[in-house]
Specification:
The chain is mainly α. The chain has 15 helices and no strands.
Length: about 300
């Protein structure tokens, strides 16, 4: 080796190492370099953008599908734990909603052994959202969340696809009335889907108890129509509504809706009244069976059938 070559290596001892690190990073980006699920979970904890979060979750999902079924459970639970941490502790609203969208998707796909844990996370996030929004408004002044205006809701994505991006935005909300709390409430309602017939992914035995939904009940007292509607949808999914912690707030709203001029509200509340074992609720349900609106009458009669079966 020439003297000049020796001098080059002595003067630049780290150049070869740096070059190798660059090559390894390129291989990682091209997915040529194998990454374990544990490594991906560590990466998921450190992601800072919704796009990066979704890409990392998709990569973890692809690896999980290749594992034996018995080995998937523990890794998937760790994945859920990391996403839940993003939802409850994330500093950015976009990141919290993206992580929450994945949790909703896992429940809908029947991939979570204990769906009640996801309900608890989303209920907790719903209660945290107003405080975060208030703190944010104090710091920077209120402005509509522009990222929500740009999002659209499609069908339930395939969790096995790389391009799977769960949209957190409920299609029923207009841009003027969007807020983070209502997005979480809509997700909670959608998490009941895999409990329904004809193709339930879960049995009702793993449905969370009513206590999980106690914190949401006081929201009914001062909520606007959109929030009340979301809460009515959630409580309408519970098998019974006899808990005092829920009835204190739900019953007055249900009775008010049963007398509302809007027939859609009267139709929607019939199911709620059928699940409340109170004389005032049953009287209101009886009145709805004679409602001048055909849809309201049919809904009330169907709900009354539930009461007779119970």
């Amino acid at each position: 080796m020439s003297h000049s070559s020796d001098s080059f290596l002595i003067e630049h001892p780290n150049r070869l190492t740096a070059s190798m690190h660059i090559i390894i990073r390129v291989f990682r980006k091209l997915s040529f370099y194998p990454v374990s699920i544990s490594e991906l979970l560590l990466q998921l904890e450190e992601v800072t953008t919704p796009i990066h979060l979704t890409r990392t979750v998709n990569r973890a999902q692809n690896l999980l599908w290749k594992l034996p079924t018995k080995e998937q459970g523990a890794f998937r639970q760790n994945l859920v734990n990391v996403l839940s941490k993003h939802v409850l502790q994330g500093a950015q609203e976009e990141m919290r909603l993206e992580a929450a969208g994945w949790l909703r998707l896992f429940v809908q796909a029947g991939q979570v052994a204990q769906p009640a844990d996801i309900f608890v996370t989303l209920v907790t996030a719903s209660m945290q959202a107003p405080l975060r929004e208030h703190q944010s408004n104090l710091k920077v002044g209120f402005s509509p969340p522009t990222h929500l205006k740009k999002m659209t809701t499609g069908g339930t994505p395939d969790p096995g696809r790389r391009d799977c991006v769960p949209s957190a935005l409920p299609s029923c909300f207009s841009s003027g009335e969007l807020n983070e709390q209502r997005v979480y409430l809509k997700m909670i309602f959608e998490c009941f889907w895999p409990f329904r017939h004809p193709y339930p992914a879960y049995t009702w035995q793993v449905l969370p108890t009513n206590e999980v939904f106690y914190p949401l009940a006081p929201l009914l007292d001062k909520a606007d129509y959109s929030t009340q509607d979301a809460l009515i949808g959630i409580y309408g999914e519970l098998p019974a509504l006899d808990d005092a912690e829920i009835l204190e707030h739900l019953l007055p709203v249900a009775l008010q809706w049963s007398r509302h001029a809007d027939p859609e509200r009267r139709r929607r509340v019939a199911n709620i009244l059928a699940h409340i074992n109170q004389e005032s609720a049953q009287e209101a349900l009886c009145c709805l069976q004679s409602d001048p609106d055909t849809d309201v009458r049919e809904s009330a009669k169907s709900a009354a059938g539930y009461v007779r079966k119970a």
